[in-house]
Structures are given as C-alpha cells and as structure tokens.
Amino acid sequence: MNGTNHRWIAGIWTWATKDATIQYNEVARVHFQAGTDNDSTAFDSDIHTYGTHTYQYNYSHDNSGGFFMSMGDLRRFGGQNIVRYNISKNDNHLHWADATFSSADQEATHVYNNTFIQNSGNGFKIQGLKSVSWEGSYYNTKFENNIFSISGGGPIDFPSTHIYDSNLYDGFTPPTDANGVIGTPQFVNSSLGADGRATTIGYRLQATSPAIDAGKLIANNGGQDFWGGPVGSSPDIGANEYNATYTDTQNPTAPVNVTVASVTDVSVKLTWNSSVDNFGVMGYNVYKDYNAIALTPASANSTSIVGLQPNTTYVFYVKAVDAAWNYSSGGSALTVTTKSAPPAVSAVHSATPVTIDGNLNEADWQITTPLSKTVSGVTYTSSQFGVMWDSTYLYVGVNITDPALFNDSTNIYDDDSFDIYIDANHDRNFTYDAFDRQFAFGYNDLTGSEKNGHLTGVLFKTSPITGGYSLEAAIPWSNLGITPYAGLKIGFDIANNDDSNGGVRDSQTMWNGTGNNWTNTSAFGDALLLP
After folding, report:
1. What does the pLDDT read at residue 132?
2. Are residues 392 and 282 in the same domain?
3. Is residue 38 predicted with pLDDT exceeding 70?
4. Is 48 a domain residue?
5. 260 and 120 in contact (C-beta within 8 Å)?
6. Share of the chain above pLDDT 70, in %
7. Residue 519 CA to chain centroid, in angstroms?
8. CB neighbours of residue 382 within 10 Å
9. Each residue of 375-396: pLDDT tens digit?
10. Do 460 and 378 belong together in one domain?
11. Which of 337, 370, 394 is the last residue of a domain?
C-alpha cells in the first residue's frame, strides 16, 4: 500500500469500534511517501475504540511506519488491546511515531507470544506517545513471551517504563526481564518469510530452540498458536508452540511447466508455474539427481542451480511444500547436460613488482590473447590482452591498434575504452552478485568506473603506442572479496569499445562473452591463476 493523498494511513485501521477482532491477515509495504509526518503502520487501534480489541494470527512485513500503533480510549472503558500470536518481519520505525510498536493507551495493551524479526538494518523501537495520550497514560504495556530477533544494526529502544517478562532476546542487550532468555531462537529457516502467509513456516522452532517451554502461562490466551496448533500448559516463547499437532494433510498440486530457462557449463536456471494448496504453498523444494538441494519461497517461481560440472548430465525436478510439510509429487523430471567449459586465459604469477604506468614492460607480461568476437557494429581495431597476478592484485594488460582515437563522451563506453568483467566467486550466475564487477577504463582518462561503485584500490593507466594505445590495470583482491591462490579459477572477460568518428560507440569486440555481459555473468570466460 502506497499512500498518496492521506498521510495517516495503516494497513488495518480501527476507529470508534467495540470489541473488534483482527485476525488471519497479511499486511505488507504500507508506506506514505518520504518524511516523518505520517503513520504507515500495519495496524492502528485509533481514537474512540473501546472494549477488548484482539489482534491475532496476523502476518506483517516491510511496513515502513511500524507494526502496531495504539491510540484509543480502551482504558477509560475498561477494555484493552490484546496483541498475540502474530509475526512481524522488518516492520520499521521511519515515520511520525518513530517506533516499531507505539501506544498512547499502554496500560490497556498486552503483547504476548509474538515473533518480531528485524534484519533490515533499521533496528527496533518501542515507544509511548505522550503528545497524543488523551488519558495521560504512556507506561506499563506488558510484553510477555515474545521473540525479539534483531540484527543488521540500527537503533534499539525498549523503555524501562514498560513491563517485560519471559521474552527471548536475540542480537542485543535486553531490558530488565527477570525470566528473559538471551540467545538465538533457532528458527527452522529464517531466510523465508516473503509474500504469502505460508512462507512464515520458516519461523517455527527447531527442537533445540531455547524458546521451547520457556514462556509463562497466560490466562485466556486463545488456545492456539499462529498456525492453529494447541498451546500447552508450559507455553513456548514466540508465535509457535513447538509440540503442537497440525491437522492439514492435503498435498499441494505439483508444479507444472517446469522448464530449463538457461544453461551454462556450471549452472542451470529452472522456472515453473505456481502450485495450489488448501492453506497456501510455503515454498518449492528443488531436487538434483533425486536429492533436495534448495528450498525457495512461494513467491519465487525460478531458481538458479550453481556449482555444477561442465559437460555433465543431471536430473532435476521440483516439489511444492505447504506449511504442514505436505509435499506435492515431483512432476516431470528434466534431464539437462551442462555446456562445455569456456576458454581460460592463463594468469601468470608475477615474480617482480608491477608498475601501473600503461607501458606493459614487465618481463612477465604475455599480451597474446586476441579479442576477436564482434558483438555489435563493424570493428576496425585489433586487440590482444594478458593477465597476471600476485598476492595483492589481479593485473590486466591490453595492446590495441586503432587508427582513430576519441575521448569526447560522457559515458566511458561511448569512447575508445575497455570493459573488464570479473565473476570472482565463479558461480557464472545470470545476474550480478556481490562478487561480480564490470570495470570501465577509457583511453586517456584519469578515472575509471565500476557499475556498482566498487573502485576501492583500483589502479589503471593508458599509454600511446604505435598505431594505438595500451592499457594496464591493477584490481585488488580485497576489492573482489576473495583470497588468491595458485589453481584458483575465476570468471573473466574483456571487451573493447570503439568510437570511430566521435560521438557514441560504433562497435564492441569481446573475448568470449556477449552484449549482455554487463548484467549476466554466465557467458564470461575464465582466468586460471598459474603457480
């Protein structure tokens, strides 16, 4: 939900209601523009609400203004807010209340057996709002049996004016809580929790979780956990009762139209159509040679399988799984043979220090590998390159014969220049990740570029030669996030951009890849580090 005309928005908003129950909802991405003068919470118990309001079995995530705001008159009428057995993931505090959980009528609010996860780096804040507290009360909210799992940084605020009892605290120093538990909750799979209530299955507890049987017994607790399982006499902390028995026995339908979207020498990308389940699909198990290798969330209808061997045949199939761990059949199996390994350029280990001056006069340089694959336009150039390495840098040297040199454009690639592509973790994936780089170095330029700004420590220099110019570049291994060693193989490619007459690029010549190298690493060649 993106508000544009009314800034006091919430996903679900009660106003002048009596004894309302809000349950079994998913609320996500409530947001009103930028700035702080707005709400943007998942739930808002607002003015003139009275009686008992119960918020239970809801799934809330990625709401920019927080999970819950209580601003009603409940205490005056002898009622209360009960907030229990909900899951909140990455609900932030970026707007008016500056709180993940805020209340102006807090003596009447009881918050128990919820699971709060915050790993977006924005922290977690609980607050009372004096300025809007018509009843003058901004203290004594009870927080009991909740999991607070917070990571990634950001401010954390648990005011001492509230009551904390038997909560589990993960990732920070807790407030005063005589029966609190400090530790990791040990979720089944915390990487899930995307769109769809079924993905919350990842926030059930493992058998060794310290949250099991560590909560306090709360009277009139509703009798069931987030997934509908019965709550025992020694309740667990959080939204899951580990020993609960769930009654769903219906299997999801099998994924259909499982298709090979693309294949490289070390990776395969599969896509499929969504399955259907009576309670909702939790995710998809992907199998390679009859062994499960990945569990993807329900919102993902594709996966990339990496780390395969070149010219090798594999069998793949996909099963849907629901929140009760009922599996579909596997559907049709696909037999896929990976491609042969791409060409590899040998990276010589430099025995002497390399001076980055563009001259390529060190004895270990072997500038012999041609760039001969034209991917766009008509080329009038001729290029050869070589690669070296030492414990600090990966070195790339190029000689180019080019009868007309231009440096007159805003974009480096529109001038005479080179692009150097690196897939440092060698996963040959179909998108860039944190280990992938595209560097651009222009003729006669003083500074280069990298598509995601990763230029720390990078050196380069161009120098005129007869009929063209040379390029010498040094890229730190620390920039790439890996440690080099003899025998290491990384994804590598290089392209020459040619501007023949001023203005924009007229042609591009590549060593091995395609014109999509800037977004896709799967067509790169390799660089092998020699002893």
Report:
1. 30
2. no
3. no
4. yes
5. no
6. 90
7. 18
8. 16
9. 999 998 999 999 999 999 999 9
10. yes
11. 337
Which two tokens mark 21? 């129950």
Please give the Cα distance from 230 to 280 (Å, whole number). Answer: 20
Q: From CA 94, how far away is CA 100, in angstroms rounded?
A: 9
CATH at residue 275: 2.60.40.10
322 and 433 co-located in one domain: no
Please classify residue 301 by burial: count the beta carbons closer than 10 Å to its beta carbon, then call 0-12 exposed, 13-18 middle and 19+ buried.
Answer: middle
395-428 CB burial, b ≥16 within 10 A, e <16: bbbbbbebeebbbebeebbbbbbbbbbbbbbbbb
- What span, in angstroms and rounded, lies between the C-alpha atoms of 1 and 29? 6
Contact, 167 vs 106, CB < 8 A? no
Query: What tokens does 441 get?
Result: 């170095």
Q: Can you give the three-state secondary structure of 212-231, one letter per residue?
A: CCCCCCCCCCCCECCCCCEC
Handedness of CA 84, 86, 87, 92 (dihedral sign): negative
Identity of residue 16 = A
Range of the domain at 465: 344-529
235 burial level (CB within 10 Å; 0-12, 13-18, 19+): buried
384 and 297 in a common domain: no
Residue 46 amino acid letter: D
Q: How many domains does the chain have?
A: 3
338, two tokens: 């990976």
* Position 313, amino acid: T
Q: Give yes or no for residue 122 having a pLDDT over 90.
A: no
Output the six-digit token pair for 24.
Answer: 């079994």
Shared domain check, 84 and 13: yes
- The helix (run of H) or strand (run of E) holding residue 480 is helix 477-480
- In sign, the C-alpha dihedral spanning 429, 430, 433, 436 is positive
Cβ burial 80-95 (10 Å sphere, 16+ → b, else e): bbbbbbbbbbbbbbbb
N residues, the chain: 531
**Residues 6 or more apart whose Cβ sits within 8 Å of residue 130:** 104, 138
Residue 387, both tokens: 């690669």
69 touches 81 (CB < 8 A) = no
Q: Are strands 344-349 and 313-322 parallel, antiparallel or unpaired?
A: unpaired
Do residues 310 and 384 both lie within one domain? no
Local structure of residue 206 (DSSP, 8 states): P
169-183, 208-222, 291-305, 514-528: the lowest-pLDDT one: 291-305
Q: Is residue 245 part of a domain?
A: no
The answer on pLDDT for 70 being more than 90 is: no
